[in-house]
Amino acid sequence: MNFKHWLITQIASEASIAEEEVDCDMAFEHFNLDSLSIVSISFEMESVFQLENVDPSLFSEFNTINKLCVWMENQQ
C-alpha cells in the first residue's frame, strides 16, 4: 500500500476536504487537525502498516506528508 496516498486520504477525511486540496509539503497544522484526529491516524498507521508504537508526536517532528513519508520508508 502506498503510504503517501493513504496519508492523503486520511488527512482529507479528517479535515473534511478533497484529496486534491492536500498539499504534501504543507504543515499538518494547516489542515486544522485536532489531537484526536492525529491520534486516530497514528493508531491506523500502526494497524495498516504493522508498525509498533507510532507516537502522535511524529506529526510535529515530521510535520508534512513528505517528511513523514521519509520517516515511514526508514521504518521498513
Automatic annotation (TrEMBL):
It comes from the Bacteria. Pfam families: PP-binding. Residues 1-76 form the Carrier domain. This is Carrier domain-containing protein.
